[in-house]
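Allow me, if you will, to draw on your knowledge of protein folds for a short while. I have a record of one protein: its chain in single-letter code and its fold written as C-alpha cells. The full record is reproduced below for your convenience:
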Amino acid sequence: MLTITESAKQLLKEILETHSDDSNKVIRLVLESPGQLGLALGTERKDDQVIEHEEAKVLVVSKELMPAVEGVTLDVEDTENGPKLTAIKEKTG
C-alpha cells in the first residue's frame, strides 16, 4: 500500500494549484526510470487510485504502478530551497 503523509498531501495540493487552474487536471505519480518516481500533470483515468486532501484530488496512481509503490511513503522534507516531496520505501525481509 502507498502511504501519503498529510504534509505531502498539502504540498501536492499547493503544487497542483500553482501549476493548473483546470479543475480536471490532477498530479499523476509516474515511473520515470526503474526505481525513480516522478510527477506529471494529467487527467484522471478509470482505474486510477485517487488520493484526496481537503475535498480536492491531489494525486492519482495508475493501477499498473501500484505494485511498484507497494510499501512506499510519500512525505515532505524541508530543504534550503523549500519543501521537497520524498519517496521512501520500507525495507522488507
